[in-house]
Input
Amino acid sequence: MKNNMNMDEGISSRFYVKPAGGGGDGGGVAGKGSMSSKCGRWNPTAEQVKVLTELFRSGLRTPSSDQIQKISHQLSFYGKIESKNVFYWFQNHKARERQKRRKVSISLDHTHHHHHHQQQQHFILPPCSNYFADDQSTTNKGGTMELEPERMMKTLQLFPLNSIGETEGDNDHQFRVNGKQYEEATAFTYKIGTKMEHPPLDLRLSFL
Amino acid sequence: MKNNMNMDEGISSRFYVKPAGGGGDGGGVAGKGSMSSKCGRWNPTAEQVKVLTELFRSGLRTPSSDQIQKISHQLSFYGKIESKNVFYWFQNHKARERQKRRKVSISLDHTHHHHHHQQQQHFILPPCSNYFADDQSTTNKGGTMELEPERMMKTLQLFPLNSIGETEGDNDHQFRVNGKQYEEATAFTYKIGTKMEHPPLDLRLSFL
DNA sequence: CTAGTATGAATGAAGG
DNA sequence: CCTTCATTCATACTAG
Output
């Protein structure tokens, strides 16, 4: 909505203080120092983004409420987070992944040779074009182009933690089973003892 | 020939009839300075939202097609609007209002978190679906929850035009009487003298 | 500080 | 009604 009805003021945003170490984090958060000073909106930590991205990459597109709960709970260890944050994250990530693809697909049109940066967000699709979706792409809903009921590796073992660079192919279509997924074991494998920074930054997504 | 989205049919219910030849809505009242340049989708003005919110607050949850007609007609004064916009608005608003009011007190109480959450904001549930299989008393889908045929004050008198700051939105459960509401009188109680902005922004909902 | 970008949050619009 | 997609708005973040 346009009219913000809560949260703090908007002017103070410019004068935010970045917790340049030596704060509550104790040791410095990795990456982009995500600890926002206020609680205006959720600012995911690098670890949270990492996990979420991995989940997405492994095929999770629309987590059920139950999954959202578990995810957010686990992620709360890395910092403040709410369920809705997880929900929104997946929504946005999926949407933008698709949007990006669609944009590319449009630029595939060779009727015009326009120079455009492929990252711009100011010229999207024509205003009214999504009504008659007889397009060629983005019509995943119609055809169930499912790969196979593969047991989507929910227990992503930790790995070199650097491969999340890019979500190249989003090939997947979450197979939710009527709101109740395979409530697999929920072994809270707390990896203790591993010498690591702050939280056990390993992608153990077995909590799903 | 301008691009007009003439896909105004086949919503789902018998609600909201078709535009039936335009109407008198012409203007582009930029209430929030963010008027969408093109067609795209309806961007309600502040006044429209105000009225709709008030209607909702006064108990209207699922307006009949007839009511939708009247509402959208009245609202067309503040800007371009169609019946389906009203229809969708109520549907979405109702659904999201409900979603928003969900407790986040699952069995998993993460109280063993000594994270100084200075966020005293309420935990709003993500606008997702039926989150939490919490056995809440909200499971009255089968039953028609009609209160008594009370004469829902449809003629909301205008008031200081600033009280819509936030509608608490607690107790309101549409009391429709078998699809036909009380077509109460239509007293045009014009409260003049109140300092008003541009349009006669007064909540005269007596047109219902 | 200003401009531009990335992305969290919100909500209009459908489909089922 | 419920679920999901698409689009838009607001804001955190970053570069100049």
The domain at 46-104 of chain B is CATH 1.10.10 (Arc Repressor Mutant, subunit A).
